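[#protein-structures] MJ: dropping YhgE/Pip N-terminal domain protein here for a structure pass
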Amino acid sequence: MKKDLKMLFKSPNLWVTIIGISLVPALYALVFLSSMWNPYGNLDKLPVAVVNQDKSAIFQNKTINVGDKMVDSMSESKNLDFHFTSQQKAQEGLKNGKYYMIITLPTFQKKPLPF
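AK: finished. structure tokens for YhgE/Pip N-terminal domain protein:
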């Protein structure tokens, strides 16, 4: 045991190896934890395509456009990075990695209100 300790103190290469081996798990932990730290803090940079397929409807002699109201609300929101586009461009953007997901607003013409 004494010979091993003497060899350890005399050989700087062995010290570098021991320190390097002990730092590898710490480096893995640092990379992993930094990727998981505060996942909601950067959602405003997450690109999301929004496709509005809604058309206006007439209800009790009033024109109602639910899709446009939702688009207006989304455009004012800073929660996600919304991009308002067509279905085709949204699909292409999803395939090539430009968008993370697609939100499609269907037509609310037949049932614009929940009653």
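MJ: nice. The chain has a mean pLDDT of 86.
AK: one more thing. Residues 1-38 form one domain.
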